[in-house]
Write the structure tokens for this entry.
Amino acid sequence: MTHAAPDPLRFAIPADHPCLPGHFPGRPVVPGVVMLDRVFAAIEAAEAGPAADLVAAAPPSPMLRLPQVKFVQPLLPAQAARIELERLSSPDAAPRWRFRVLREADGALLATGETQALADAAAA
């Protein structure tokens, strides 16, 4: 029996995740940094996908800049969310992405922003 690989564009943070205690007592919400971690994983998966040879100039784990991020609504533990990605850069340029994180149940916008890969500091 084969299992499908997890979809990097969909996620839910379980209620027992270690990021939740203290954020916030009595009404836990998923920290924004955890949502961003999922966004980064989705971008990494997209960069490693079938078009990976088109972005060979990008390092495998580039440092990222976040020129714009906005958290609109909280994501609660165990709520399903999905990530939408749009590549803003040309295939031969350092990757630049626009993202949106949406609650799966109702499509409500949870977070939006942009990421941009920076040139490796050692190469500069």
